Q: What sequence folds into this?
């Protein structure tokens, strides 16, 4: 099936750039708008963009992603993460909206499934949950795609942070009591395009790298797979307090047969390591 044309918002971000790359590779007609092109919370500007471009689908990658900053600036984050998705969903085209594991409280024993009760513990999580609810309330066709622990060649990410710390200090402590699914944005971008092509796959989807690990386990694989020498030690969240609480459990499971499955997170890491030296040659 054809997606017709796609408008990608937040197209200057880590995920947005990979979505534009995936669309181009698959011959999907896509227009990318960065924050300076289109503020997703500006109803007039969104209406104008939709009138000009007449997209069939909007893939919303725009967000306030400063998780700690949102604790102090929740109302500013709410405008982008809460109001913006509602404005897009009310503008007419179908919306594929990206959300997060932070909508959950992180206390569940097993993996979170789509229907699990939400209960965000951070300002960022509350704003992202508001975005989901506003998309649903708009009453138009939509898919809400929760993901987690993103890393991609177009953004600052955990892989680069670990490599830089290892090179600068030779030793690093990483928390071993938060579990999640590291997700390569190039893989997620493919799933978002798949969902843009599948109008019947509405509602909530969980799309994250297959399998799970802790941040410590992720760091260990990064050092092993890049051949980076580093004295790595596990630590706990209470030794590494930050303004916003992090979920102890961010593991997302997909139970719907129509949710595109992502490759294993270790494959995501391998593909990232290959791409970081070739895509744009920026690392
Ligand atoms: N990163 C993760 O680990 C993670 C995990 C789970 C879910 N997510 C979700 O994944 C999505 C993509 O995140 P990302 O990692 O690609 O973040 P990112 O690199 O920060 O990209 C977000 C983009 O949105 C733009 N933006 C901010 N406010 C905007 C506005 N009012 N209108 C239009 N654009 C605006 C930002 O522009 P500026 O840079 O100019 O502000 C940035 O280019 C988000 O929905 C995020 O909540 C991320």
A:
């Amino acid at each position: 099936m054809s997606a017709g044309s796609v408008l990608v918002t937040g197209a200057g971000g880590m995920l947005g750039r990979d979505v534009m790359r995936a669309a181009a590779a698959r011959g999907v007609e896509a227009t990318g708008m960065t924050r300076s092109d289109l503020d997703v919370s500006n109803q007039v500007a969104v209406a104008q963009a939709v009138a000009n471009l007449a997209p069939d689908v909007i893939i919303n990658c725009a967000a306030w992603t400063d998780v700690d900053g949102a604790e102090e600036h929740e109302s500013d984050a709410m405008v982008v993460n809460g109001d913006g998705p509602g404005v897009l969903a009310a503008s007419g085209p179908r919306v594929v909206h990206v959300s997060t594991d932070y909508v959950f409280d992180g206390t569940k024993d097993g993996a979170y499934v789509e229907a699990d009760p939400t209960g965000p513990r951070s300002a960022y999580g509350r704003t992202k949950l508001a975005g989901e609810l506003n998309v649903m309330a708009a009453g138009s066709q939509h898919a809400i795609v929760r993901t987690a622990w993103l890393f991609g060649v177009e953004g600052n990410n955990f892989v680069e942070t670990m490599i830089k710390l290892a090179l600068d200090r030779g030793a690093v402590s990483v928390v071993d009591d938060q579990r999640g699914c590291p997700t390569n944005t190039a893989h997620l971008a493919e799933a978002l395009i798949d969902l843009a092509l599948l109008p019947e796959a509405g509602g909530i989807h969980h799309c994250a790298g297959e399998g799970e690990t802790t941040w410590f386990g992720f760091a260990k694989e990064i050092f092993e797979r890049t051949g980076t020498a580093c004295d790595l030690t596990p630590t706990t969240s209470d030794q590494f307090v930050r303004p916003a609480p992090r979920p102890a459990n961010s593991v997302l499971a997909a139970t719907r047969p129509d949710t595109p499955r992502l490759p294993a997170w270790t494959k995501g890491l391998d593909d990232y390591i290959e791409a970081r030296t070739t895509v744009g040659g920026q690392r």
Summary: The two ends are 37 Å apart (CA to CA). The chain has one domain: 5-157+181-212+252-265. The domain at 5-157+181-212+252-265 is CATH 3.40.50.720 (Rossmann fold). The mean pLDDT is 96.
